[in-house]
Amino acid sequence: MQSLNGKTIGVLMGGLSKEREVSLTTGREVMQAIRRLGLTAVEIDVTHDVWTQVKDAGIDLAFIALHGTYGEDGTIQGLLEYARIPYTGSGVLGSAVAYNKVTSKEVFMQNGIPTAAYQVVRKPERDAFQRHLDLPVVVKPSDQGSSLGVTIVREAEEFDAALELAFRYTEEVVVEQYIDGKLLAIGMHGEKPMPIVHIRPKSGFYDYESKYTKGKTEYICPAELSGIERETCQQVAIAVFRALKGRGFPRVDVILDDDGVPYVLEMNTIPGMTPTSLLPMAAKEGGMSFDDLVLEILKRATRDYMD
């Protein structure tokens, strides 16, 4: 706490992506926590003129509560690097690689990390695309979060509509083999895995509504796993953290199939901090309050930047 006294913390929220509303919720929750901690913070609702906003606020440290494009993709991180302002979360390269699902899957495969088989469709090649994967498949934008534009395709006649939806959000779409199993979220405290959360959406699909509407999803923390399953998931999460140059408190999402293989979906470098978010849930199970989690994220940012 002493290293943060006398500093002005800028909470960067809102932003320009389609996840703006979620970001505002995360930012406001973080702002309240920082004030409860007795620290000085200013709210910055990010616009195209973000450099002027940051400069005029005179901040010493940035808590990035931005979700989606321009927040998680290395863009804002690069600006803060130029300004020599320490910030929370992964660095420029780590953010950019983790945010793009195609690039991150390539890194997983190069490092022997389990990930579902996939194909890539780019908008100019859409009409010529041929699906080689058996149904069901998951169709998703390569660079969006919060399950925006994601469809589980179980029947062939649903495929074109799924592509159409995904292309509303991006120029590049991932078609991924559907893996049946337990959806698990593994928060990371640096390279140390936090208690695992088992996500059970009542609709059967963890979409935007299931993520952000109370009562739509059941969360079990700690997840009911065997010792071997837990250890396997934790080791894979550590491997993902290292391969994607993780920093701070990211979250690794996997699907654990019936054979005990944890197929990695992604690493979220700026996990949500809303009332239904998974990272605070894991932290609470580990004995860390929401305010303590925010404090640790800030302290970690100052240490990471010095490193």
What does this structure look like?
By secondary structure, the protein is of the alpha+beta class. It folds into three domains: 89 residues, 3-Layer(aba) Sandwich (Rossmann fold); 108 residues, D-amino Acid Aminotransferase, Chain A, domain 1; 60 residues, ATP-grasp fold, A domain (Dna Ligase, domain 1, 2-Layer Sandwich), CATH 3.30.1490. It is 35% helix and 23% strand. The chain contains ten helices and twelve strands. The strands form three sheets. Strands 10-9-8-11-12 form a five-stranded antiparallel sheet. Strands 4-7-5-6 form a four-stranded antiparallel sheet, with helices on one face. The protein has a three-stranded parallel sheet with strand order 2-1-3, with helices on both faces. Strand 8 and strand 9 form a beta hairpin. It is globular. The relative contact order is 0.15. It holds the Pfam family Dala_Dala_lig_N. Pathway: Cell wall biogenesis; peptidoglycan biosynthesis. It catalyses: 2 D-alanine + ATP = D-alanyl-D-alanine + ADP + phosphate + H(+).
For the biggest sheet, the summary is: 5 strands, antiparallel
In helices, the fraction of residues equals: 25-40%
Please state how the strands of the largest beta sheet are arranged side by side.
Answer: 10-9-8-11-12
Rounded mean pLDDT is: 93
Structural class: alpha+beta
